[in-house]
Design goal:
Elements: H1 22-35, H2 37-49, H3 58-64
């Protein structure tokens, strides 16, 4: 999942993420959860936490992401 970039679904592209819109990102999470609930939960937690990347000061976001 990490290799596929799923944990950075909502992280801005400038920080190495996919910068997916809400419908596409949540659709991917839903599909993963359909096949494996635990995997869907892990991707949801990691991906939605990445939403914060766009609100951090640039130097801190680069350090984290």
């Amino acid at each position: 999942m990490a290799g596929a970039g799923l944990f950075k679904t909502f992280v801005p592209t400038a920080l190495g993420g996919a910068q997916a819109d809400a419908l596409d990102g949540l659709g991917a999470i839903e599909e993963i959860g359909y096949h494996d609930g635990a995997a869907g939960w892990c991707v949801m937690i990691a991906a939605t936490t990445g939403l914060l990347a766009g609100f951090l000061p640039a130097e801190h976001a680069r350090d984290i992401y």
